[in-house]
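2024-03-11 09:14:02 INFO worker-7 job=invfold-0412 stage=load source=structure_tokens
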């Protein structure tokens, strides 16, 4: 299983970014996918999850500003981030969790930097 996130970069507050994550070596429908982020000196926190029992869910800070989607044919997972804030600055990671046994896989992150 390999995950590769991309799409990060510098952006001004109020701007938007779309992160992408390509999943390879997986049967796409057999996994739940999620986006996490980690700021320097902070723990890695869930941002959004797709494919769980509720369909998708979000952290309090992401709800209403971010959306998560997938293109199964391309084996891609997306995180659309709108109205970005400086506190959204972090390394963003995608994660896949196997439905069958809960095995977890992480991709390398992509840095998002929001300036005020």
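2024-03-11 09:14:09 INFO worker-7 stage=emit residues=116
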């Amino acid at each position: 299983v390999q995950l590769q996130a991309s799409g990060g970069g510098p952006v001004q507050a109020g701007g938007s970014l779309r992160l992408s994550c390509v999943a390879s070596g997986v049967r796409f429908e057999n996994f739940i996918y999620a986006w996490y982020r980690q700021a320097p000196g902070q723990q890695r926190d869930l941002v959004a999850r797709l494919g769980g029992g509720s369909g998708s869910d979000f952290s309090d800070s992401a709800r209403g500003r971010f959306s998560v989607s997938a293109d199964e044919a391309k084996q891609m997972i997306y995180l659309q981030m709108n109205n970005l804030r400086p506190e959204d600055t972090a390394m963003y990671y995608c994660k896949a969790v196997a439905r069958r046994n809960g095995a977890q896989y992480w991709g390398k992150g992509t840095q998002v930097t929001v300036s005020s």
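2024-03-11 09:14:09 INFO worker-7 stage=report msg="The chain has a mean pLDDT of 95."
2024-03-11 09:14:10 INFO worker-7 job finished
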